[in-house]
Amino acid sequence: MKDLQQKFAEWMRGRNGSDDLARCACDLAILLVVIDLFARTAWLTWLALALLAYAWFRISSKNVRQRAVENEYFMGHLGKLRPWVASPKAAFAEARSYKHVSCPDCGQKMRVPRGKGNIRVTCPACHKKFEVKS
């Protein structure tokens, strides 16, 4: 078993490996397979296989620089979903512990602890004080 692991590690040396875009493609492929269990359509199966092939292409690619540029472009266009793609477990824990609010004057975003009732918050950018329900 160690010999096989060593050979695989040697083969992967200099390759891109798993990144956010590859993991997202795999997750989407798994979701499509689960949906296809109920829908039973051939095109969903082919789409899932294409996503898995694309993920494998990204993982085994030796053009690390280009894959990094593509991954950064993808992550930059995710907006509010970025934390959920990068680390779903941490994003879920944060969503349960904190609420995100915006300052009514300058729009600065900040987080406040959940479950504290009405609290008075001071904006770190414009220093305006306002109340929010946590």
What does this structure look like?
This protein is of the alpha+beta class and 134 residues long. The protein has two domains: 2-86, no CATH class; 98-133, no CATH class. It contains six helices and four strands. It has helices at 2-12, 20-39, 42-60, 64-76, 82-86, 88-97; strands at 98-102, 109-113, 118-122, 129-133. The strands form two sheets. Strands 1-2 form a two-stranded antiparallel ribbon. Strands 3-4 form a two-stranded antiparallel ribbon. Helix 2 runs antiparallel to helix 3 (42-60). The chain is elongated and about 60 Å long.
Show the helix and strand layout.
Layout: H1 2-12, H2 20-39, H3 42-60, H4 64-76, H5 82-86, H6 88-97, E1 98-102, E2 109-113, E3 118-122, E4 129-133
Antiparallel strand pairs: 1-2, 3-4
Helix pairs in contact: 2-3
Name a few traits of the molecule:
alpha+beta; two-stranded antiparallel ribbon; two-stranded antiparallel sheet; 2 domains; 134 residues; elongated
- Taken as a percent bin, the fraction of beta residues is 5-15%
Shape: elongated
Low-pLDDT regions: none
Give the termini distance in whole angstroms: 52 Å
> What is the helix/strand order?
HHHHHHEEEE
Radius of gyration from CA coordinates: 21 Å
Task: Determine the structural class based on helices, strands and strand pairing.
Answer: alpha+beta
Helicity level, as a percent range? 55-70%
- Strand order, largest beta sheet: 1-2
Q: How many DSSP E strands?
A: 4
Q: How many structural domains can be distinguished in the coordinates?
A: 2
Round the mean pLDDT to the nearest integer and report it. 90
**What's the story with the biggest beta sheet?**
2 strands, antiparallel
H/I helix tally? 6
